[in-house]
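User: Please check token order:
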Amino acid sequence: MAKITVLGECMVELSPEAPTLAEGDGGAPLYRMGFAGDTFNTAIYMARLGDAVAYCTALGQGDPFSEGVLATMRREAIDTRLVRQVENRLPGLYAIVLDEHGERKFHYWRERAPIRDLFSAHTADQLIEAAKASDLVYLSGVTLAVIGDIGRARLKDILAYVHSLGVAVALDFNYRPALWPNAEAARAALDGVVPSCRYVSLSSEDSRPLYDREAEDLAGEWAAAGAEVVARDESHAVNVHRPDGRTATPAPGRVKAVDTTGAGDSFNAAYLSSRLAGLTIDESVRRAHALAAAVVTCKGAIVPTASMPVWVRE
């Protein structure tokens, strides 16, 4: 069992449950409320895989939505001691809109979300101590986007420090243009963190708008510098680059997707959990694909435990 510290934002999620009778005439679907966010999803799936997970975030205080997030974390056996609560603030909210293929589009309300005030000195001190005691620190490009300039500067220094102590750092690029003032700002923030990473996950959907390059090209360069880089393409084939070479794994069999929300997050959870447990790259990718395939057959980012692969539930 690995000890993992995850950083990011949990939001209120509105997931389409069923169409109204009038939807075809301009009506709206019915929505189910839940709690999710890219790194939060990964944290939950890592915890379900048996790892000891702490989640570092900021929430409101006393409102039913922040309390709902905390209740979800406790139910999923996630350590809440790194949660900072801010008075008179509410968590961000997003709604999922699906097309006929299950591909999703998000609409966000998060301008005053408390995650933007995550890094007080107290939180930084807490995070450093938790990270030093961890096997892995996990974050994403979304994490970097929402914590602001001061938070990014502090986090960059923290990650460099724990990396120097031998703690593994994992980064999922997960580039969301709407969260950044421009691609240059995003690229600078991500480039500042990559040297501290042992694991990096990116796709060409991330690399093309940021670097005007394919993920494979960047993966080879970063692997040469010491990272293990998971490069994904549109076919869902995965090539893992390490300093000692490249492992190519084929795309899995197709499944009928109901909702692709959380697919990449669950893939990262299973891959990293498997690698930390000592599994081979091939087996880690196989397990990651299996979990992601189960996730896309359900609506919402967090699927019922009963819908997860058998090897997860055993």
The chain has eleven helices and 13 strands.
